[in-house]
Fold Phosphonoacetate hydrolase.
Amino acid sequence: MSTFPACPQCQSEYTYEDGDNYICPECAHEWSKVAAADSEEVKVVRDANGNVLQDGDTITVIKDLKVKGSSSVVKVGTKVKNIRLVDGDHDIDCKIDGFGAMKLKSEFVKKA
């Protein structure tokens, strides 16, 4: 089984290495190893303590957070289950009991 990445154009798994490039024999697409390494980088989301967060984790809020557009506040110690990581400034998408769907910044939570 090949450990080379799949072709980014046709998703063929039969790619091979030629010098500093990968080549797809099905569509003749060529791309550099450097470009392939850059595309495989995955954004790592960490909580306030430096622990890596993943989809489905349970987190705890470590600071009172004002809810934009409302007079209510998410209190310290609020547990949030089954988070989803998303791209953007607010990198956690979740549902909080009593508040509904909300986006949080990872710097204001810790892994439970």
In short: The chain has a mean pLDDT of 88. The first helix runs from residue 33 to 39. The helical segments are 33-39.
